[in-house]
């Protein structure tokens, strides 16, 4: 576990399904405009077609310490590998009909910009720093050092309606494969 991208998942506690996303399939996306790393505001409810949103707690930065005990919080570690996996398979998602892909966290957009640039992400990260979307959808969260952070999940949204929620997500770098398998009909609902 020496780098942000290389993680031994067997050494980390796995999150359990606490039911925190069970209510999401069938839910309409609320009208919420979120700052994005593209420099524009994005309202996912207004977008047509299929959208994939993967939520994550917070991305680390080289040379900057993560909160004490971060690795022992079930599901906390792995935001960089998760984003890199979505980056590496972005074209495959598009070939499956995904019109928009977004990463989502409660970090400020300025912090996310560093991540998007460093990781060369071809899609925007969305900031829900004001917790508007988090509260409206009742997304699962946890608190660290006074900050409300999202638990890791992936949503598939079609024309403003959540049609699938993957939760919990572990290991994080496998999330994109679960999403692609769903599009390929390899997962029964």
TrEMBL record:
Coiled coil stretches, renumbered: none
UniProt-listed Gene3D superfamilies: Glutaredoxin
Alphabetical list of Pfam families matching this protein: Redoxin
Cross-referenced SUPFAM superfamilies: Thioredoxin-like (SSF52833)
Top-rank taxon, per record: Bacteria
Signal peptide: none
InterPro entries assigned: Peroxiredoxin_BCP/PrxQ (IPR050924), Redoxin (IPR013740), Thioredoxin-like_sf (IPR036249), Thioredoxin_domain (IPR013766)
Ranges of residues in domain Thioredoxin: 23-188
Name of the protein in its database record: Peroxiredoxin
Sorted UniProt keywords: Antioxidant, Disulfide bond, Oxidoreductase, Peroxidase, Redox-active center
Organism: Qipengyuania qiaonensis
Region (Disordered): 1-27
Compositionally biased residues, Polar residues: 1-14
